[in-house]
Structure formats: C-alpha cells, structure tokens
Amino acid sequence: MSHTPATPASLSVLIGRFQPFHAAHLALLRRALAIAPHTVVVIGSAHQARSPRNPFTWQERAQMILQALPEADRGRVHLLPLRDLYDRTRWAQAVREGVERIAQHQGQGLAPGSEGSKGTAGTAGTAGITLVGHLKDHSSAYLNDFPGWGFDAVAAQGDTAGTQVRDTLFAAEPRGVAAMQAEVAAMATARTRLGTPPALPASTATFLHDWVAGPHAAAQAVEWRMLAEYRRAWQAAPYPPVFVTVDALVRCAGHVLLIERGKAPGRGLLALPGGFIEADETARDSALRELEEETHLDLPAATLAASLRATAVFDHPGRSLRGRTITHVHLFDLGDRPRPAARADDDAASLAWVPIAQLAGMEDRFHEDHFHILDHFLGLTSPGA
Fold first, then answer.
1. Alpha-carbon gap, residue 105 to 340, rounded angstroms
2. Of 358, 366, 355, 360, which Cα lies nearest the Cα of 381?
3. What does DSSP assign to residue 77?
C-alpha cells in the first residue's frame, strides 16, 4: 500500500489538478492527513480560463476538496493555488516556496535549506515536510523534484482518472442535462456486481450534479467535441503530428493588441493574433501575414516589420489541447506613437488595445498559454509566483 515516513511529518503535501476531485484524490488526501497535523494541497492549473482540460476554477476545486472532508479536518488543510508556469524547474521552486511559507506561518519551524535537509524519495528528510503521491508514469515524475522533503509513496487508488470523468460528462452533454446528471450519479455509485468502488465522493457528485446544469458545461462540451474531431482527423498520420504556429505581440504606448477568438478552441477568450505557418513562409513572414489578416493594423508593412524587437519559441508539450503545438512569438514594439487603428477579421471576433497595467488582473480570460507568453515578454507576475 504505502510506506510510513521514517520520521513523523510536521506537514504533508498533496499536489494535483483535481479536475475534478475524485475518489483516488480523496484517498491520497486522507493519507496525507493521517501522517501530519497539517496538509498543504497544491491546486495546479490555477487562474486559467475554463477549457475541456480545465473546466473547473481553482475555487470550485477547493470547494470540492473541502466538502469531501469531515468538518474537523477542513481546518487542517491549507490550499495553495498555483498557475501553470510551463517550466518544471521554476514550477517546483514555486511549489517549494509556497509550501514552506505556509509551514512557517503555521509555526512548524521548517527552515528552507536547513542543515541535513537532503532527503530522497522514500525518506522523510529532516525538514519535516513529506510529499504524498502515487508514482504512476512519466506524468508523475514531478514528485522527484523536491529533494529535502520526505516522500510517502502510495499505491494506485483504483483506476479513476480526471480525464475519464471529463470525457464521460462532455460526451453525454448532447443528450441533455439529465443525461450528464445520470452519468454523475453512476460514477458516485459502487457497482457491487463488479466489485468496483465509487469513482466520485458523494460531495463531488453533488457539486457536479449542479455544475452540469449551469452555464459552463455545454460550452466546454462544444469545445471538447471540436478537439475530439480534430484529433480523429490526424489518427491516420504515421507519426503524431507536431504543429507549428506563429503569434504576434504588438506593443504600443503602454498597450498590447489582443483579439477575442471567434472559433473553438478558446472561443470568446483573449489571445495574441496568430495562426498556423504556411509551407512557403518563414516564421517572421507568417507572423506578419497573420497580423494583417486578423487585425488589419493601419500601419505600413515596412514600419511594422522594422519594429520587430524579439522572438521566442514556446514549445511545452501541454501548451495546446489540439496536440503538440510549437509557436514562434514575435514582439513588435511601436514605441510611444499613437496607437494605430485596427479591425478584427478572419478568426478574430473582436480586438482591442489593452493597457499593459490591466493584464495581470485578466489572467483567467486568456486562451491556452497566452497569458504566460505575455508574462514572459512583459513581466506581469512576480518571480516564482
């Protein structure tokens, strides 16, 4: 099952996306609470716009987590929402800093980098922090990124996965709310004949029963079906496809030019103008073409081309739900001149010049990793946040 840390933990840590919080998550959380007086639950993929992979906000996931526990245990759980940083080293450091900040606030006396805190997986370490988790496959390799913390390895807690729960809900959506609610009820019921335990805690089932009747499930199901069709179209390819795209970040007089996406995926979300590179284009020429097609920026082509100041490649494997997509982002800086007129066209439903000072408060309105791209170029968030 699991091994007990060599020394008692002062604080246990559970990391997950919890999309949604299911029975296997609850088993891990119970283990974390059993080995320490306090548990930090790190809620990943926080602050993102809703998508088929991330349909629930971090606040909704926090609600599911706490409601699954007895009242007496809820005060022992400390929630740490953390955005996707698309950089494993930076992300692990942000987790460490957040957890140790909570530990110190709770009076645990856990000093980051203290003498002797050189624990390895399978030991408790001397820092008093123990990570609880299940080493499933490459997707859980991050559990090895916290030297100095103990690690409590827990065996698989059933075969429930968040992907399965989401797929079940969104596949049922065309049949209506009642069909989705019936699927929720089935996942919360033990199938005695097969000896299969419930996939969802009763409290999560209650939350999902109400959620699927609200405004978000249908919209995410439309996106889910589009993405499923997109992936099916490439099933005959001899190798998994790798897509190459371009995006244009245009800065002018303290503003950036953003579009509202008019089509799935990400319909209604904010994004940089961009699209797929064509076979006969360089990345630079493709960025200029996409910028023209989507924004009709009222600026001579030569002036715009001369304003190119930087490029960067964003290639995290999980950055796009369409599949492996590598984008080349081009920063065009127009200085402090008056902002040129622009008009939405092609895949853009609308566009606007948005003050850079407002972007940090708009994180949950962006498509895929476009907020992260803006953060990379413009420094919107504090280091390690």
1. 50
2. 360
3. E
Q: What is the pLDDT of residues 143-167, one digit of tens each?
A: 889 998 999 988 877 778 999 999 9
H or E stretch covering 312: strand 308-314
Question: Tell me: the pLDDT tens digits for 68-79?
Answer: 999 999 999 999
Q: Where are the domains of the chain?
A: 11-153, 162-233, 243-378
Burial class (CB in 10 A: 0-12, 13-18, 19+), 355: exposed
CA distances from 76 to 24, 30, 70, 210 (A): 20, 11, 11, 27
Q: What share of the chain is helix, strand, coil (3-state, %, to 5)?
A: 40, 20, 40
Element (H, E) at 228: helix 216-233
Q: Into which CATH architecture does domain 243-378 fall?
A: Alpha-Beta Complex (3.90)
**In the structure encoding, which two tokens stand for residue 18, read together?**
């919890």
Amino acid at 123: T
pTM, to two decimals: 0.89
Give me the half-sphere count of Cα atoms (radius 13 Å) on the Cβ side of residue 150: 26
| Whole-Å CA distances, 109 to 8, 98, 99, 114, 131 | 14, 15, 13, 10, 17
Check whether domain 11-153 has CATH 3.40.50.620, yes or no:
yes
The model's confidence at residue 126, banded by pLDDT at 50, 70 and 90, is very low
Structure tokens at 355: 């003050």
